[in-house]
Amino acid sequence: NGVLHLGESGATEIEVACESIADAFAASGGRVDLIKMDAEGAEYGIVLESDPALWSGVRRVVMEYHHSDDHDFGELRTFLEAAGLSLVRHETGGPGFGLAWFSRDPLPAAG
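-> structure tokens emitted (111 positions)
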């Protein structure tokens, strides 16, 4: 379990159940059609600290990424591409911030 802080620092605490990405993949039976990730900077730990083999059943990923003093988008891209996902679209929203779409299989052409 983790603790979620709402409002000003320490003003309200709510204990919430937390799962690792490995637990989430296991609960899905190892097949995931789409991951939509918006983790406000935690995406580096979630992705880079996971076992690349877990991602073999993931078909598509849409993620927002944020600036980090310790990591950059290139690390996420390298990890996901090594796991068999190709970057199909990338939009930057400023230094160290953007949206990225990855797919395991080719996407149909926009019509």
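The longest strand covers residues 86-94.
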